[in-house]
Amino acid sequence: MSLQKLVSYEFQTRFGAPPRFVVRAPGRVNLIGEHTDYNDGYVLPIAINRAAWIALRQRHDRQIRIYSVDFDEVIEFSLDYLQRGAMQWDEWLKGMAWAMQKEGYQLQGWDGVLAGDVPIGAGLSSSAALQMATVRAFECVSGFSWDALTIAKIAKCAEHEWVGIEGGIMDQMTAVAGIANHALLIDCRSLAFEPVPLPRETVVVVLDTATRRQLVDTAYNDRVVECQAVAAHFGESSLREVSSKQLESAAQQLGDTMYRRGRHVITENARTKLAAAGMRRGYAAEMGRLMDASHVSLRDDYDVSSRELNAIVDVARQQPGCFGARLTGAGFGGCAVALVASTAVHRFIELAAANYQTVTGLQATIYVTRASDGAKISYDSRDSTDDLSS
């Protein structure tokens, strides 16, 4: 059963009637451009064909009541009395409601059922998928106009001020603006973005190490502070404004750690722009080379890799047909991403999984993904006669 039919079936079972709407928002995998988004830099992600789905109907009050299939849990809260709780899945919904109302959106309550297939904590942005599915749900019942850039900024605010993660805007932008069969080159300073076609006869493979991280509890926010300090050393608001020449001239003053943090961000921005240019020309080998260099920089200069991430990247690179591989999704655990020749992908998955288990004793989940569209209203009962519960 598809997730769209699953949430519709569960909705009918729990609420005694079909849903009025079903919404969907994707996760993402970042091909290159890691830890550059909160430095006003460049990123090159794709929205993936794994998503958060919500089936819902409008309420006539300002209560939210939603059942999570994945957690087998019901949460309820009032839009008039939002309170932070323990860090779990419902905080992302409450955070979005809080941020939207802060910006003047008049929100209506709803009943809903939530399910998804974006792995949690794997670096594929299950949180942004939930954020954008939540916004689409509110759009269905509240009647406001959808503007991708505005919504992405509000979601970033919710992540910073409600959840407490000082991240950039890449995840939200990708979940809201993804384009099928394309990556997005996003300028995180101007928020301009352009679609970039994936190289022909290649596929994007996600390699889940079976390890997880919680960004709030890791050094993620420390990296944000470190980058801000390096930028401030040069009198700039972000590392986007600092050149390699400036950084090299101040290496001794900055010290080894801060110098390496700055070097990663500055060189990663350059790699990301080169990668987009290579993809436009269909140069898969060039893209792979840049992905490999990105991982080395993340491992050695930014210190966000792990034993398992290094292992899975190494075994991926050793397989025939792999153009390049790197950690993705901030690091500290989670997933890597590889660009692989489509003719070699089945053998690649088999060998990479076996070799990773030999090296680490862990069983990786490895799957091909494809670039999908961003957040959508997938079903509106006013426009359809489909029976989604069958």
Helix content: 40-55%
Oligomer: single chain
Span between termini:
9 Å
Low-confidence segments, ≥5 residues, pLDDT <50? none
The average pLDDT value, as a whole number, equals 93
CATH topology of the largest domain, anyone? Ribosomal Protein S5, domain 2
Largest sheet: 8 strands, mixed
Give the ordered list of helices and strands.
HEEEEHEHHHEEEHHHHHHEEHEE
- Please tell me what the overall shape is: globular
**H/I helix tally:** 12
- Estimate what percentage of residues fall within beta strands: 15-25%
The CATH architecture of the largest domain is 2-Layer Sandwich
Structural class: alpha+beta
Question: Would you count the extended β strands for me?
Answer: 12
Our Rg estimate from Cα atoms comes to 21 Å
Count of the domains: 2
CATH class of the largest domain equals Alpha Beta
Give a brief rundown of this model.
The chain has 390 residues and is α+β, with helices and mostly antiparallel strands.
Description:
There is one protein chain. The protein is an alpha+beta fold and 390 residues long. The protein has 2 domains: 3-192 and 372-380, Ribosomal Protein S5, domain 2, CATH 3.30.230.10; 198-369, Alpha-Beta Plaits. It is 41% helix and 23% strand. It has 12 helices and 12 strands. It has helices spanning 3-15, 90-102, 126-142, 148-163, 170-177, 220-233, 244-249, 251-254, 256-280, 284-300, 307-317, 345-360; strands spanning 21-32, 42-58, 63-68, 73-78, 110-116, 182-187, 193-197, 202-208, 322-328, 335-341, 365-369, 376-380. Strands 1, 2, 3, 4, 5, 6, 7 and 12 form an 8-stranded mixed β-sheet that branches. The chain has a 4-stranded antiparallel β-sheet with strand order 9-10-8-11. Strand 9 (322-328) and strand 10 form a beta hairpin. The protein is globular, with a radius of gyration of 21 Å. The model has no long low-confidence stretch (mean pLDDT 93).
